[in-house]
Write a structure and sequence with these properties.
This protein is mainly α and 86 residues long. The model has no long low-confidence stretch (mean pLDDT 93).
Length: 86
């Protein structure tokens, strides 16, 4: 039961981690990131990184995979937002 719950949690975590790709798509469509809070994205990404490191230290794949994906997508969102601000 615990293994099944871990798989479900990790799977949904990956879906949640990919969700900011919708924001990336919107920024690229409008060619603007004016409505995006860079501070929010930065703080969120720090949290993902901390959880990723914690998951690696355990080691717990159910924590590592979704937070690794979230960190990468969050970093991409932040980079695109910063580039569109120039």
């Amino acid at each position: 039961m615990i293994l099944v719950l871990g798989v479900i949690a990790a799977s949904y975590g990956v879906v949640m981690a990919i969700a900011p790709a919708l924001q990336i798509r919107r920024m690229l469509q409008t060619r603007s990131s004016a409505d995006i809070s860079l501070a929010y994205l930065g703080l969120l990404n720090v949290g993902f990184l901390i959880w990723l490191i914690y998951g690696l230290a355990l080691p717990n794949v159910a924590i590592v995979i979704p937070n690794g994906v979230a960190f990468l997508v969050g970093a991409a969102t932040l980079v695109i937002a910063l580039r569109l601000r120039r």
